[in-house]
# Entry
Amino acid sequence: MDILARKGYQSVNELAAELKVSDMTVRRYLDRLEERELIKRTHGGAFAGQEMIEVDFRIRETVRREEKEAIGNAAFALIQPGESVFIDAGTTPAFLAYAINDTKRLTVVTNSLVVARTLENRTNVQCILLGGTVHGPTHSLVGQMAEEGLAQFRFNRAFMGASAIDLTAGLSQSTFEELPIKRKAARQASQVVVLADSSKLDKQVTFLFMALSEVHAVITDAGINPADAQAMRDKGIDVIIAPAQKE
# Structure
């Protein structure tokens, strides 16, 4: 735990070398720590905390990948041809971009470099990338230039990511720099759809950016606690359970 707190993400091999034990021993220890929800496992390593933003995007993308793929597919099914949508930065919104194909003519506005790269060759998708300052950990563009660019648009739907969802306080994020973009995009959308796997529910991280009263729908996976789903429905939020992907 001390190593992960000091260094962020570490591979199994790195931990084995530093602790002078076998890879098998490290994996066994990591399994136990994850069962206690003290760390998060990835393919080949681990990091501390629910959503350590210092961990590279490509590593965080491997966490709960199947659930995120299902959420992305369910989100794409909501979009109607001709709509204008905002897709937030973050690993779960990225899976919406991965799900978008050329069957619907769309306009997508984003501050995510990952989303823009994914959609650049979709012939039926007009993808507009906001300008701004590059924020490396999230592969996104932030700052005044991005906020001013966003002011020119209105959206049918804004698909938002979140580091955590607290059923009382609302949505929170690990990085302060992203908050103005998130808030502005949500205000300029007719519908706000939150994309969050079930591990994000009933948790808090540092920066609150949206109340649940501003959310119209949450797309999550079948691992959600039924009581949490009902609590959101009681607040008037449409809770969509993304079906597991078939083999």
Observations:
- The first helix runs from residue 2 to 7.
- The mean pLDDT is 88.
